[in-house]
Amino acid sequence: VQLQASGGGLVQAGGSLRLSCAASGRIFSSASMGWFRQAPGKEREFVAAISWSGSWTKYADSVKGRFTISRVKDKNTVYLQMNNLKPKDTVVYFCARAIAVVPPTDPERFVSWGQGTLVTVSS
Hints:
Blueprint: E1 3-6, E2 9-12, E3 17-23, E4 32-38, E5 45-51, E6 57-59, E7 67-72, E8 77-82, E9 91-98, E10 110-113, E11 117-122
Parallel strand pairs: 2-11
Antiparallel strand pairs: 1-3, 3-8, 4-5, 4-9, 5-6, 7-8, 9-10, 9-11
């Protein structure tokens, strides 16, 4: 399964963006999808994850209440709605797939990764 992330861009602080991650193949109900972000020279940081069944969602404390992860099965696509963006959210965002019913937060548990999409939040 190949993943294609899109939707990054430049936005002012307090604004919103929606990232998309389209999968080229079928995603089974035993899978989970996640979003991570990574700043230069830093480790990849968990942002949010969702089980493909939709039963589970997880969020990093830093984005709770501001970001929402969702998926549309028919489109094989996962979204990350980001509201009230802050300059500290400026990094490259990656989507990933894990073979896990309950979405993990450890990037080592994810087996497929999309290319990154840059989000820039100006103050």
